[in-house]
């Protein structure tokens, strides 16, 4: 229910890279999410406001943006938990080109996913026997720990290595590579290890763990990247790559 008199000031990024913040005064509504607030602004104040969303329930990740300087899913972030002194600041995800207002171009993010060989590669020919995958298998558990990523881009936006080195593959792409490295049914590990040890590969991570702090699902890309570093070193010593 809307409170009788309480309002908050919301500064929203407008335009492209050379844009600026525009302030809106909006009613404070109990249990309102950031996405709800943006919907109110677009429907009742300024219909030209651009932002991205789909599922509204934390399944797709498309509504991610910076809330008071931190990347978050806006559909799962309550206004009351982040408003500071009656004010909010909303900006598009960092480290990605701005299309308009709060919408970013995700193409560089997904290109790095491809560069890290983030696609499952089956055997070149039909296998005679399927590999048994047991729930208590350590390799399977490592894959399970990394596999829930939905590509929202929060970790990529929070990563200071991506900010300083645009060639860096980033936490999400490397986390995906690690899940496939531990998939016994995948047949592209040598090529994948070469890909993740390139100039923009896993060795660039300096374990700041901002990706861990900002992942809405509680994943640990830093641990995945550490696993990749070890796997690359072992494969190099064995002469496999």
TrEMBL record:
Is GTP-binding one of the keywords?
no
Q: Which InterPro entries match?
A: 2Fe-2S_ferredoxin-like_sf (IPR036010), 2Fe-2S_ferredoxin-type (IPR001041), 2Fe2S_fd_BS (IPR006058), 4Fe4S_Fe-S-bd (IPR017896), Beta-grasp_dom_sf (IPR012675), Helical_ferredxn (IPR009051), SDH/FRD_Iron-Sulfur (IPR050573), Succ_DH/fum_Rdtase_Fe-S (IPR004489)
According to its UniProt record, which cofactors does this protein need?
[4Fe-4S] cluster; [2Fe-2S] cluster; [3Fe-4S] cluster
- Describe which pathway this protein belongs to, using the record's wording: Carbohydrate metabolism; tricarboxylic acid cycle; fumarate from succinate (bacterial route): step 1/1
Q: Which UniProt keywords apply?
A: 2Fe-2S, 4Fe-4S, Iron, Iron-sulfur, Metal-binding, Oxidoreductase
Q: Which domain of life is it from?
A: Bacteria
Record domain 2Fe-2S ferredoxin-type: where: 6-96
Q: What is its EC number?
A: 1.3.5.1
Q: Does the keyword Transmembrane apply?
A: no
Query: What molecular function terms (GO) are annotated for this protein?
Result: 2 iron, 2 sulfur cluster binding; 4 iron, 4 sulfur cluster binding; electron transfer activity; metal ion binding; succinate dehydrogenase (quinone) activity
GO BP annotations of the record are:
respiratory electron transport chain; tricarboxylic acid cycle
Q: What class of enzyme is it?
A: oxidoreductase
Per the similarity annotation, which family is this?
Answer: Belongs to the succinate dehydrogenase/fumarate reductase iron-sulfur protein family.
Q: What is this protein called?
A: Succinate dehydrogenase iron-sulfur subunit
Q: Which organism is it from?
A: Oceanimonas doudoroffii
State the taxonomy lineage: Bacteria, Pseudomonadati, Pseudomonadota, Gammaproteobacteria, Aeromonadales
